[in-house]
Amino acid sequence: MKAAVVATMFAFILASSAYADVTLKQTVTGKGLGMSGQSTGTTYIKGHKMRSDAVNGDKTQTSIFDLDSQKLFIFDSKKKEADVWDMAAFAAQLSTSVDTARMTASLEPNGQTKEIAGQSAAGYDLEISMPASMAGNPDMSMLVTLSGPTWIVKDAPGAADYLRFYKAAAEKGWVLSDPRAAQGAPGQARAMTEMYRQLAEAGGIPYETDMQVKMSASGSGNPLGGLLARIGNVSTSTSIQSVETGDLADDLFAPPPEYKLNSKK
User: pTM higher than 0.85, yes or no?
Assistant: First the structure.
């Protein structure tokens, strides 16, 4: 009897340590589309829910991804209302503008290591190519290429919970970005989703990622050629400052109850 009780307690301890709510603090730097800048943010993960708070000046924009309900909530600290997106419907809509059958992706170790935020990270080279079109129009097709190095910590605190969320998101075909931006750049948005899937399959948390996004028009006479040439490349860098584990309150993963909810498509 005592052996059974000890075994049960040991199994519970293992299960508890396998998954723990996780909080990540990071900085994000972006350059392209005529703009550049840096923002700080915090990401919270609890099961199949993730909250991202991005601070820019005196405003904080919050995105809450609820995989099980297929809902995305977006709101900022200046308004008392939230936009609500049906992500199952949005994913179906976005699929008309990207050709995932012709997508190519690779994530290969490059043999390098470095210390980031007190953790030893292994270097990988990532490259993803995604054919896409504007508004599903084949005459306005392009190739989106996302490439660059990433540094992954495989034994990081909270890695199990982090990986569980991103693998579930990839299985559901989620776009982990603002749908309004994804509508304007569907290839880039879908390539980013594939990037998260590739990183999750590597089995750790990416503590640092430097990505170049290149867009080129496909076919001669494509009206997008001149536009994409003027836009140029986009670069983004993300760096983790700290990772902590510990219970997170359920109400952190929903808009405040007094907020007005606006349905979006």
Answer: no
Q: Classify strands 260-264 and 81-86 as parallel, antiparallel or unpaired.
A: parallel
Chain segment 79-95, per-residue pLDDT in tens: 999 999 998 887 777 66
d(CA 133, CA 112): 36
By CB neighbour count within 10 A (0-12 exposed, 13-18 middle, 19+ buried), where does 35 fall? Answer: exposed
pLDDT at 221: 57
Spatial contact of 253 and 49, defined as CB atoms under 8 Å apart = yes
Please check whether residue 46 is in contact with residue 249, taking contact to mean a CB–CB distance below 8 angstroms. Answer: no
The answer to whether 94 and 186 have CB atoms below 8 angstroms apart is yes
- Determine how many CB atoms are found less than 10 A away from the CB of residue 135: 10
In contact, 200 and 163? CB cutoff 8 Å: yes
Go through the domains of the chain in sequence order and give each one's CATH number: 20-264 (2.50.20.10)
Q: In the numeric block, which tokens belong to residue 37?
A: 């800048």
Give the count of beta carbons closer than 10 Å to the beta carbon of residue 191: 23
> How many Cα neighbours within 13 Å face the side chain of 25?
5
